[in-house]
Amino acid sequence: MVDIDGIAEAMGVTVIDEPTLRSDVNAMYVDAERVILVQPNLDPWNRRSCLAHELAHAFFRDEVSEPRIERRAGQWAAQLLISPAEYKAAELLVGPSVGALAWELEVTPQVIETWRECYQAHV
């Protein structure tokens, strides 16, 4: 399993629990400060998934949000969090259900769906 906090540290990105984020925002990246603000009450699956998504914004130094950039960040995060071998092993263990795979791989269902789109020829 990928150490998201370790990757953030290696990238020079600081992760801060920020309880004052709007309730409809789980996390956000602020490029000028190289910081990710994250809701402190997220479950581990949402936290990992959100941090990976925001690390994609840090990697690409995104300063704006638009559909193309969000799609790229989602794809980058899915590929960071799940290797083809991990996906295959999880699917053999729990079957093809998106929810079961998300639980097994400790990501959100959206990450599973995005990963499948990226690796459609392999699943």
Task: Compose a concise summary of this entry.
This protein has 123 residues and is mainly alpha-helical. The protein is 56% helix and 10% strand. The protein contains six helices and three strands, in the order αβββααααα.
Order of helices and strands: HEEEHHHHH
Strand content: 5-15%
Number of helices: 6
> In terms of structural class, how would the helical and strand content be classed?
mainly alpha
- The shape is globular
The count of β-strands is 3
Helix content: 55-70%
Average pLDDT taken over every residue? 95
The major β-sheet equals: 3 strands, mixed
Low-confidence stretches: none
Q: How far is the first residue's CA from the last residue's CA? A: 20 Å
Q: What is Rg?
A: 14 Å
Strand order of the largest sheet: 1-3-2
Give an account of the 3D structure.
The protein is mainly α and 123 residues long. Helix content is 56%, strand content 10%. The chain has a three-stranded mixed sheet with strand order 1-3-2, with helices on one face. Helix 2 crosses helix 3.
Topology readout:
Blueprint: H1 4-11, E1 14-17, E2 27-30, E3 35-38, H2 44-60, H3 67-81, H4 84-94, H5 98-105, H6 109-118
Parallel strand pairs: 1-3
Antiparallel strand pairs: 2-3
List keywords for this structure.
mainly alpha; three-stranded mixed beta sheet; 56% helix; globular
